[in-house]
Amino acid sequence: MFHIFQYQPLRLITQNSLSSMCLKLMLSRPVAFAQIWKSWFSSHSLLGKKNIILMGPPGAGKTTTGRIVGQKLDCPVIDIDDDVLETTCNMSVSEKLRDVGYEEFLEEEGKALLKFSASGSVISLSGSNPMHAAGMQHIKKNGIVVYLDVPTTVIMSRLKSKQMDRIVGLSPGISLKDVLQFRKQFYRRWFDIRVLCGGDVEAEVVAEKVIDAVKRYQDSELETFISTRSSRSGRSMEGDSHKLYFSDVVTQGLALDGGLFVPERGLSKFTAEEWQGLIEATYIERAQVILERCIHPADIPASKLAEIIESAYGENFSCSKVAPVRHLAGNQFLLELFHGPTASFKDFALQLVPHLFAYCIPRSCNYLILVATSGDTGSAVLDGFSRLHDTDKQRIALVNFFPEDGVSPIQKSQMIGCQKENAWSVGVKSDFDFCQTAIKQIFTNSDFTGFLTVEYGTALAAANSINWARLLPQIVYHASAYLDLVHQGIISFGSPVDICIPTGNFGNMLAAFYAKMMGIPIRKCICASNENNVLTDFIRTGVYDLRGRKLISSFSPAVDILKSSNLERYLHLIANEDGQLVTQLFNQLENQGHFQLRKDLLGKLQQDLVAGWCSDEDCLAAIHSVYSTTGYILDTHTAVAKVVADRLQDRSCPIIISSTAHYSKFAPAILRALRIAEINQNPLSQLHLLSSYSALPPIHWGLLETLKKTGNGDHQVCVADISVLMSHIETLIQNHFM
């Protein structure tokens, strides 16, 4: 066995002499002693008997970084190449590789790892160590594996400058780029922590990032969540026993005080170099990196998160780019968010969240998820939860409430057709605002939720955009869209863009703002409303006023919303986390139907947001105009955003318009916009008619298949009464879990 004692410092200090030295320093220079003791304790408590294991491709800087980390933590440093392999082989690594070939070299390298043991050290692996499974399993048992993630182009440049040609796997017909891409699968398999390393980042900076990342890994207390309605004094009085973590807020959904969960310390910010390192990355790779920063590994380990992300986006989206950016005209670009299985942007969250939820919930309890939808969420959440493993379906069920007469015929057909053995749709004879408010009231009804837990062993959870986990995947696609423009050469990194989003519940808009906070150079977020333009009025005046307003049915039903739930999170943010103020505002809205922002808060809001609205007539006219000039068909929501973008943009920078749904979902309105006189009422016939136009994008594959298979089917319908909804919930629990 290869033991760490070979690497202990040569200067030995006996226990008595150490005690004597400490006593003299403490008496003569107490401040200096305190600082030294604090530094020593911090570094040794960080490692304990664990090792920090640096992993990455050749040229990532593992050896240099390892030495600096070891110096900073005052602990032994071991380089596997120099200190283990070359000692074992009695020759250089490059000579050994040349002598035996790469397959035998990998095996001997792995055997050396299996004989190796250390504790409390910084270990720099070779670039090929992670390719030997047994060796990595052995060394990982007593260590935290830190992946130094350097862009492939940077690695290739470094290796070329060093003239390194002896690399495991490199041979005639196999390029260096191919070797580096092949190895990534092994790095992703083994790492606990990822540290992004740009091309020009100094080793000293990388070392600091490694130490900070290890501290974060070992201290989940740093990433707790609070309610938008909790006061600072209340939080300090509650103490550690009431701390909530990501896994808690995913399952709980809504805070007990009626507020929404937000991270207590905000979101992690990326440096410009870190963002630039993702320009060449795929969508799935970008999602992995961004979500690792938002979800603590104590809640979901990086390897499990990677598995979930691959499951969500690997095969379920019809476009390999997942969320492609398409040039529309002039300085306008479309972010196409409709390539998922149910043809709307909701798929980005709802292909991911069910797996996060299933991983986070305790195995000892059943869960019923409540959803309110104005259209697209229903089919997306039903499809997402239907893809869970069978064992998870037995303990997780879902009920989707939607306005019976407030969604498009195709949306309704989707929601009914997507019902599964653990998921049901219930039409409510009211509007979306009632459905959403009813769910909030059910969650905060402790008598009812307590009864369900005691009587049926079932807890309630939410999958609406009020659930924190729903927002995170939306941050990813806003960031990815910007990086795509950089990759396409439209802009250079650091140049600003505007974003225009059809907005109802404010979740998509909030996610764009979070992307901006994390370092994406978004200048203005443009909020686009239809005739239900309460948000537009609020952003312009600071007055949120529902008095005398009635919901207007429009051709863009997903934004037929008067109460924008996620606005509460944004106001909490700009009010410096003043939970008492947020409580006051939203209690006033609930009881009196209005509230008004202070002047200083309105000023902050208007630095971030601008807003406009669009009539149904202007929406249809925009669809016709864009199709006539480009051959591209916008859906009704995207058309609303296009109209508002035309009115409010200043054309000084690119503007990314979120195309939130496929036009197939709103076939009657689209056919009307295209000036079709006679429209067949059968949804499938409408899609066939649209497909005859050979427009861009083509008819959505998943939507067409769903309508072919299911038709309209059966579903339950109930009156707009909360007690009736509660009765439905209890009956569904009895039928599924009992």
> Biggest sheet, open or closed, and with what strands and sense?
6 strands, mixed
What radius of gyration results from the CA coordinates?
28 Å
Mean pLDDT: 88
* CATH structural fold name of one domain: Rossmann fold
Number of helices in the DSSP assignment: 34
What oligomeric state best describes the polypeptide chains here? single chain
Any idea what the CATH architecture of one domain is? 3-Layer(aba) Sandwich
Structural class call reads alpha/beta
- Order of adjacent strands in the largest pleated sheet: 8-9-19-14-15-18
**Weakly predicted, low-confidence segments:** 1-27, 32-43
What's the structural blueprint in terms of helices and strands?
Layout: H1 15-28, H2 30-47, E1 51-55, H3 62-73, E2 77-79, H4 80-89, H5 93-100, H6 102-114, E3 122-124, H7 133-140, E4 143-149, H8 152-162, H9 176-190, E5 193-196, H10 203-218, E6 225-227, H11 232-238, H12 246-252, E7 261-263, H13 272-276, H14 283-294, H15 302-313, E8 325-329, E9 332-336, H16 346-350, H17 353-360, E10 366-372, H18 376-386, H19 390-393, E11 396-403, H20 409-417, E12 423-428, H21 432-443, H22 446-456, E13 458-462, H23 468-487, E14 497-502, H24 507-517, E15 522-529, H25 534-541, E16 543-545, H26 567-574, H27 579-592, E17 594-596, H28 599-608, E18 609-613, H29 616-630, H30 636-648, E19 655-659, H31 667-673, H32 683-691, H33 701-710, E20 716-718, H34 722-737
Helix pairs in contact: 1-2, 3-10, 5-6, 6-7, 14-15, 14-23, 18-20, 20-33, 23-24, 29-30, 29-31
